[in-house]
Amino acid sequence: MDHKLKMTVAIVGSGASGVTCFIQLVLKYIITKPSKILSIILFEKKGEFGTGLAYGTGQEGHLLNTKAGLMGLFPQERLHFVRWMHDHKDRIEQEFPQVSPHPDAYPPRMLYGKYVQAMLDEYWQLARQKGIEVSKQQVEIVDAEVQKDKRVILRSASDHSYPVDYVILATGTPEAATFENLKSSERYIDSPWPSKRIIQTIKDKYAKISIVGSSLTAIDALITLVANGHKGPITFFSLRGLLPRVQSASEKPFQRKVLTLSTIKTLIRENRRSLRVKDLIRLFRSEVEGYLERKLDWATEERVNKNHLQLLEEDIRQAMNGDSLFQNILYSLREETYAIWKLLPVDQKILFVKWIKPYFDINRHAVPMENGIKIMNLLKSNQLEVIGNSEDIKWKGNKFVLKTEDGQVYKADFVINASGPASVIHKMEDQKLLQALLSKKYIQEYGAGGLIVDLNTLRVKDVSSEERTPFYALGHLITGLQLDVNSLWFNVEQADLLTDDLIRQFQ
Ligand SMILES: Cc1cc2nc3c(=O)[nH]c(=O)nc-3n(C[C@H](O)[C@H](O)[C@H](O)COP(=O)(O)OP(=O)(O)OC[C@H]3O[C@@H](n4cnc5c(N)ncnc54)[C@H](O)[C@@H]3O)c2cc1C
């Protein structure tokens, strides 16, 4: 068929972001009834479509870190996942007897993966009924070439070509860009996912294991180990040694008086300068002190180099009582964070990422209570130790030698890198497609991480010519321009903007 009568959209990456783009595109096409035929090709390099890295885990102890009530795959319908759990109560009770289909629950991520797959199946059938051409290609896309007529030829690792009109880049979470020097050791595991790699590589249940990092990613690796019977000592080895805080049983509404978009806009207008990170710190502190009706000694709030067990016990107590004040304030900011983030110039975003984000993340991306208690028990039994001030790791023949900035030395039989995904595109070395797009200047890097898109449409911008390109991007790829890309609800809302723009191309 003449391609002017048909539009082909490629979705590269079929994790949750790719799937929400797919279902939204199908729905909007059916509603707007354009005259052109829509063809969608879903690409996925893994064996499974729909679950992605985030929800493709085989470990039941890997829980959602966002409450179920935020996990709907449809924009502004955040409770959709909860409703789906209710609709499939009998099946869920059989397969996951401990799961409650409640908006405040944190079900296993593998259950969420089943939901994403179910939605993909449902909209796949609908697309076919409505005459949309759909196809799944289980290949890795490694290259793209934009033709003179703006069509794109995608190329797979097996050298197959796919001509398309638009490309949605939903390639998700890349590997960490750290510790290249350890890759030659068979006892080095460069990512905690897929978890079967950890289980297959570490057979000795008494081996000494060091997990690089101490965030939710590190906790995934820890849960994999202990759920599979690991008995030996485990360390978290990280820059600051900060553990995520603990999720409250239910989110406590917080009425902000100081840290508001309105105050920030006033501040910018009165000072006649752009927003700075230090303004945000000042407003946050003032919000906290206003609520407590007293001045705080902020130095005592510092969590680095403190007793981790005591901190965690206190966090669990606060979470149980619903008085995790910092968390309550940051959660209340959920809908405004993006607007505030856009007001920070790039140099200030870089500063935030470097200095503030680790503290923001431990509050905003807290650990579900169930896993918080597991970590507390592991710390109590001394099976787990958290080491901060990490400096260097070397492989010395038969052991890893880990050094801290203050000269302490630790040894480990295995190292698992859970230091988090690369945020700079040219360091996402496992993502060949991105490297090809970068070298051909089809995408450009943003100073604070990720690539540059038009924030109203998610369309990749050619910064030099201001021309619109055939590429769209969402999720981790635009970390930097956006802050909440590691939250499903945010990616769903972004997919709404993206698919609105894409559907306009049919008119
Ligand atoms: C382990 C983990 C747990 C998380 N838990 C939560 C949570 O509980 N709640 C929450 O809100 N957010 C969570 N997140 C954040 C998560 O990033 C977002 O929810 C996001 O929407 C995940 O979907 P994604 O499709 O963007 O990325 P991914 O899940 O990484 O999926 C991307 C997919 O693209 C495929 N792919 C990549 N490159 C190519 C290519 N070139 N060709 C073909 N296929 C390709 C990959 O194989 C992968 O399947 C989690 C993230 C991770 C990594």
TrEMBL record:
Domain FAD-dependent urate hydroxylase HpyO/Asp monooxygenase CreE-like FAD/NAD(P)-binding: 10-173
Pfam family name, one: NAD_binding_9
Transmembrane segments: 7-31
InterPro entries given in the database record: FAD/NAD-bd_sf, HpyO/CreE_NAD-binding, L-asp_N-monooxygenase_NS-form
UniProt KW Transmembrane keyword: yes
Protein's name in the database: FAD/NAD(P)-binding protein
Keyword terms of this UniProt record: Membrane, Transmembrane, Transmembrane helix
